[in-house]
Amino acid sequence: MDISAHDKTALELFKIIITKGPLTLYSANARSNIPIGTIHRHFKEMIETEKIMVYEMSQAGRRKISYGPTLYGFIYFYRLDDEIKKNLDSYFDTWIKKEKFLDDLKKAGFDEKKIIADGKTSKKIFSKFVYFYAGVEDQLEYLVKNLKDVSRDIRWFIGGFLLVRKREYMKTYDELVTTMPGLRKDISNFLESMIESYGRLKKMNK
Predict the structure, then answer these.
(1) pTM of the model
(2) What CATH number is given for 5-145 in this structure?
(3) At what angle do helices 181-204 and 167-179 cross, to 10 degrees?
(4) How far is it, in rounded angstroms, from Cα 58 to Cα 126?
(5) 107-166: pLDDT as tens digits
(6) Which residue ranges make up each domain of the chain?
(7) Whole-angstrom Cα distance, residue 99 to residue 106?
(8) Contact 68, 100 (CB under 8 A)
(9) Distance between CA atoms of residues 92 and 86, nearest Å
């Protein structure tokens, strides 16, 4: 995969964080040749895009803020770097000890009871989760860059799913469903497949 200069710098900083962190801006600067201003811009952007988050904040003396990775950060940069792929288990062992990272995994749906008690299984699930959603990220990036090559039905499905969440379009959507039998059939088929999936999910939870 071709990586932009911007992503290369972000990746370098993320790898410093996951191997040496949690880190402040200044400690990241001390461990790299990247100018402090560049680090500040990248940290700000990675916080806004949820790739890193605040782990510790010291109020003693000059305020120090330490940053660490998010689950999404691992997913995003996993796509760009073989070293992260190779050492993912080791990173999990390191960061699962941090409460902030543990909370992030719980929010993503990891089993709260087993995540620590059964670390071996949790590590496998973490690897599969990162692998799968890295693939999702790749598909989204492909859509953005190659929209003209994406079939009409897929474009309409994804766009429609996002659009019907907006209040101003809901009435129009309801009118279309009411007056178009073909559209109703497509939606019905989709819902039936979702119901089947839900049925399988319920059996798993028993």
Answers:
(1) 0.81
(2) 1.10.10.10
(3) 110
(4) 30
(5) 998 888 888 888 889 999 999 999 999 999 998 888 888 888 888 877 877 887 788 778
(6) 5-145, 151-204
(7) 10
(8) yes
(9) 12
